[in-house]
Amino acid sequence: MAEKCHMCLLGLILFCSLLTGTIEVDDTHEFCSSGGSVRLPCNNALSDCTSTVWTYSRHSKTAELIALGKKKTDTERHERLSLGSDCSLNITKVTKDDYGSYSCQQYVNGQHYGSDARVYLHFLHVSVSPSSSQIRNGSSVTLFCQLYHDQVSCDTLVRADGVQLIWENQAGVSLQTDSRYQISPPGNCYSTLTTTLLDEDHNTEWRCLVTQINQVKTSATYIVRYSDPADSTSETVDFMTDGSLFRVFAAPTVILLQSLCTRAGRKNSHHPKEIEMSTVLQ
């Protein structure tokens, strides 16, 4: 009898919670990188998405994306948004501008109903120094991997949610303990990888991964491509010798020598003679 009363009491509490809209909904963390797609779940959805409102906020600025099941068209990202049959928010061609806090809300008869389902979207990005045009065999390169987040601290992500940034190569082999790479200590939302490039690194792919409790959530990739020296911009130097003006076009592998004959005292106009000579630099 006591057990039946206990079950009835639990049912009554749940029923009252539904009526008063006080059911708590856990926050969700989603991770993405540039160009990908992401689904943001609406964990408080009712049977009909016509009651669903999605809002986005970052740095204390808020925008409404979905209003009672209909997509707003006055936002820059509206073409990349869609509402799923389960009221989830789908974002395609993700950019850095998309990270932030999203909230799925329910409105019944014009009244805010229940607790909001909040989704934190974190964005992973990899950059390189020096610039890609300066990368070549033998040079030192540093990759910067950063997890952008808002309204939740990095300490919370790392310590409470088990988020880590790790590096691996294109074969999926971890670089964390490889002595060739200097990798910053774990425990932050920012990681660097520094190494000296070798000839075989051309077209090599390095990845920065976000893991949460040892499960990969997303990754950002950098592909090493050595710049073609022949594409470098030539510089010109003019000098005079034996009454002629010489112009040298200096490129990394070839010198083009152009002789512009401008002998003093010549009255008749002639097209300048051009001499082109290729010399491989030693």
UniProtKB/TrEMBL annotation:
Keywords for this protein? Signal
- Which first-to-last residue range defines the signal peptide? 1-24
Q: Name a single GO cellular component.
A: membrane raft
Q: Where is the Ig-like domain?
A: 35-105, 124-219
Which superkingdom does the taxonomy of this entry point to?
Eukaryota
* Gene3D superfamilies to which the protein is assigned, alphabetical: Immunoglobulins
Record GO biological process: interleukin-15-mediated signaling pathway; positive regulation of ERK1 and ERK2 cascade; T cell activation
**What is the name of the protein in this document?**
Contactin-3-like isoform X3
- Tell me what organism the protein belongs to: Carassius auratus
Gene symbol here is LOC113116444
